[in-house]
Structures are given as C-alpha cells and as structure tokens.
Amino acid sequence: MTTSTTKINKIAIVILWIVLWQLAAMAIDEEMLFASPLSVAITFSKLCVTLDFWKTILFSVLRVIGGFVIGFVLTTTLAVLSKRFSFLRAFLSPAITVIKATPVASFIILALFFIGKDLVPLFIGTLMVAPIVWNNVLGGLDAVDVKLLEMATVYDMPFAKKVRHIYLPSIRPYLMSAVGSGLGLCWKAGIAAEVICRATPSIGNYIWETKYYFETAEMFAWTATVIVLSVIFDKLLLKLFKGGAKK
C-alpha cells in the first residue's frame, strides 16, 4: 500500500467519524447536551483568533510537556541505575507499583496540600509517566543481548561505544513505546489536574468553566484542542527518536 493511499484512507476514516458525530448530534437534537461538528468548528474559529487562547495553550503545553520531560529523564536515570544496582530496583519497584495503581485524582488532591495549584499538573505529569518509562527502560535493558556484551568485553570496547552500538539499539524501541503511551497519559492526567485544581491560565480551567454556562460547543472545542496537541507532540517526539536512530 502506497503512502498516498494510506493518507487517503486515513482522511476517509476521519470524515466517516465526523459524519457519525453529526448523525449523533442530529439524533440527540439538543445543542446544549451534544454539540454538532459545525458548531464546534465555529466556536473553535472564534477561540483561536484571540490572544488568550494561545496564551492558555502555551501554559498548558509547558505544564504537560514539562512534566513528561522531567518524568522521562528522571525515571530513565533511575531505571538505568536500578539495572546496575539490584537493591535500588527492589527498593523502587513497590513505589512504581503504588503510583501505577493509585487513582490520579488521589494524587492531585494530595499534591494540592503541598504545592501550588499551578504546579500540580506539572507534578502529576511527572508522576504518571514514571511507571511506563520505568517498565519500558528496564525491559529494554533486560533485553540486551548478553553475548554482544561478552564480545564487547573480550575486544575491550569502550563504554561509550557499548552504549551507542549495543544498549541504545536495544532500548530505543522500548523508549519509543514509552513516549507513545506516556505522553498520551500525561495529557489526560495533566488536563485532569488543571480541571480539578483550576490552574490559571489553563485548558483545564476553561473546560471546568464551560459546565456552568452549558457551553458544550466550547467544551468540545477545548477537548479537540487537547487531542490535536497530543497528536502533534507525539509525532514530533517519535520523529526525534527516529531521527536519532538514523545517526
């Protein structure tokens, strides 16, 4: 299947979902409860020409992507050290399990007692990405071919070359998987934290405010914005990893 055919198929699928969305809106026939694609598009066009819209997006992106980057770097470092020191792995594993099993809302409410509401989404993003990165990095390190490492030792290969030619090729697919899963979770958890904390300015705060005025179209528009941002940053980061793989 050619690239152009694939793109056409994807566009056709998107159009099909929009048609289904329109049919659902027509069936419900109540704009206050379920906004139609046209009303959402009109609302979005009104939002995106305002400076406040882009300012809000900037702050939400900084919180979500900042949380993801901090969580990714910190957890990757801890996972690498845990591979080297078995005690650290045993010590941190229960904490990772607790983070994975605890509801996001519990962490959000608890964090509100200790840090400012505007920093909670950043903290939550850092926390939520940890289990995904931890499992993927350790999985990649555990999958490194032992025979290759033995051969590298026999030929006295420098550590830097071991990392570049043995460890990175093995761990890169796991890192890409962590990016794909972790970033999406960061967006959901980060925006949820903004909604609960009413961080300002933030997308989550605007979503929270729409319920008071029954601005369903605006809520849909902000939600669509989050989805688009998530897809864009997901593709950018995956391209970054693929670009690094070619070097």
Helical content (DSSP H or I, runs of 4+): over 70%
Reported for the largest beta sheet, the result is: none
Question: What is the strand tally?
Answer: 0
Structural class category: mainly alpha
* Tally of separate helices: 10
Unreliably modeled segments: none
Percent of residues in β-strands = under 5%
Q: What would the average pLDDT be, to the nearest integer?
A: 87
Query: Gyration radius, to the nearest Å?
Result: 22 Å
Kindly report how far apart the N and C termini lie. Answer: 28 Å
| SSE topology string | HHHHHHHHHH
Shape: globular
Overview of the structural elements:
By secondary structure, the protein is mainly α. Helix 3 runs antiparallel to helix 4 and helix 5 packs across helix 6 (120-142). The mean pLDDT is 87. 83% of the residues lie in helices and 0% in strands. The radius of gyration is 22 Å and the shape is globular.
Write a concise synopsis of the structure shown.
This protein has helices at residues 3-28, 37-47, 51-84, 86-101, 104-112, 120-142, 146-154, 159-197, 203-210, 216-246. The protein has 247 residues and is mainly alpha-helical.
